[in-house]
Amino acid sequence: MNDYMVRGLAYHQQIRCFAATTTHLVDEICRRHDAWPTASAALGRALTAGSMMGMMLKDEQKLTIQIKGDGPVGQIFVDANTEGDVRGYVSNPHVHFPLNPQGKLDVARAVGRQGYLSVTKDLGLREPYHGLSQLVSGELGEDFTYYFATSEQTPSAVGLGVIVHPELYIEAAGGFILQVLPDASEAAITLLEERLKEVDSVSSLVKRGLTPEEMLHHILGEEIEILGRTELQFTCSCSKERVERTLLSLGIEELEKLLKEQDEVEVTCHFCHEQYRLSHEEVENLLQRLQGQKKEEQKNNR
Q1: How do residues 103-149 score in pLDDT, each as one tens digit?
Q2: Mean pLDDT of 245-268
Q3: Ranges of H-type helices in 184-251
Q4: Interior angle at CA 229, CA 42 and CA 193, nearest 5
Q5: Alpha-carbon distance values, 65 to 79, 90, 101, 204 (Å)
Q6: Nearest CA among 25, 138, 176, 148 for reference residue 88
Q7: What is the pLDDT of residues 288-300, one digit of tens each?
Q8: Average pLDDT over residues 55-82
Q9: What's the sign of the alpha-carbon dihedral 181, 185, 191, 194?
Q10: HEC readout, 26-76
Q11: What is the rounded CA–CA span in Å between residue 69 and residue 190?
Q12: Containing H/E element for 156?
C-alpha cells in the first residue's frame, strides 16, 4: 500500500483531524542517509509530522521544520508541501542507543530535551511565517503538541511512531494530528481526552495494517468526515542546475580559489545524498560567465 494521508472532521465538525502512513517514505529517506535505528525513529517522526503539516497549507505553499536539540543526532530538517512531497535529513544519522525503560527506541536521548522546534512557512507573502517553541521532551510527538499550543494557539494532540526492523528497514511509520476547533464544546473536548487515554501506539496501528481512515476511526470511535486524501512521496528538488547556481553565488574570487585547489568540484545534496560532480572545465565556464557579467556591469555603469 502506498503512503498517504487524510484530513477530515469529527465530533460534528468540532475536531479537525489528520492521519498518515509513512512507512515507505521514511524507509526511503533513512536508507539514503544510512540512518541507524534511533536516528531513523527521530527522523521518521519528524517526517511524518511534516507530511501532515504540509496538508494544512494551501495551493503551492510549503514549510520547513527545523528541530535542534542537545542530543547527538544534531539538527533535523524536514521540507513538505501541499502536494505530498516530503524530504528531510538529520545531521548525524549514525546514532543508536539501547531501548528506553518503556522498551522503545530512545528518541528523547537522541534528540535531546533542551532546544527548539522551528517552523517556517512560505505562504507566498513578502515575508515567510516563523513559528518557534522550546522542546519539552525530545520525544517529538509531545514537542509538536506543545508547538501547536504555544506558537499557533491551537490545542492539539500529536501521535507519531516508527518501528525499525532488526535488519534496519522501516517496518511501520505513521501518525495523527487532532486539533480542537474554536467552537468545540466541552463535551467534545472531554470525549477526545478520554479516547486518547485508550489509544494504542500509532506505530502498532500501522504495523497491524490500519489505513489512515481506520486509524482515525480507532482513535476517535466514530466515522470521520473525510475532506481530502493525498499520496505522500519522497521528492528532492536538487539538480545540477541548482548546484551551478549555488557555485555562481560564491563569486569570482571563490571560484578562482576552487579552480586552483581542485581538479573537479563534488557537491552532495543534504536531503537526498545525490552527488553532483563538475569538471574543471565546467567550473571554468561558470567563472567566465561571472567575469563576463562583471564586465558588462562595469560597461553599463560608465
Answers
A1: 889 999 999 999 999 999 998 788 889 999 999 999 999 999 999 99
A2: 86
A3: 186-197, 202-207, 212-220, 240-250
A4: 60
A5: 6, 12, 29, 25
A6: 25
A7: 888 878 777 777 7
A8: 95
A9: positive
A10: HHHHHHHCCCCHHHHHHHHHHHHHHHHHHCCCCCCCEEEEEEEECCCCCEE
A11: 33
A12: strand 156-164
Pair type for strands 225-231 and 233-234: unpaired
d(CA 288, CA 302): 21
Q: How many residues does the chain have?
A: 302
CA–CA distance, 84 with 290 (Å, rounded to integer): 37
- The C-alpha cell at 118 is 522551528
Interatomic CA distance for residues 191 and 50, integer angstroms:
27
Report the DSSP beta bridge partners of residue 121: 63, 129
Place of cell 544519522: 93
Phi, psi for 207 (deg, rounded to 5): -60, -35
Measured distance CA(47)–CA(84) in Å, rounded: 11
257-269 b/e (C-beta count within 10 Å ≥ 16 → b): ebeeeeeebebeb
The residue-averaged pLDDT of 169-176 equals 96
For the chain, give the percent of residues with pLDDT over 70. 100
- Which one has a higher pLDDT value, 292 or 158? 158
- Cα 94 to Cα 85, 267, 292, 293: the distances in Å are 25, 21, 45, 44
> Helix or strand or coil: residue 295?
helix
Is pLDDT of 302 > 70? no
Could you tell me which residues come within 8 angstroms of residue 88 by beta carbon, excluding any fewer than 6 positions away?
Answer: 29, 43, 46, 47, 50, 65, 76, 77, 78, 79, 271
Hey, what amino acid is at 96? Answer: H
**Closest to 152 (Cα-Cα) out of 41, 3, 16:** 16
All three cell numbers of 289, joined, read 560567465
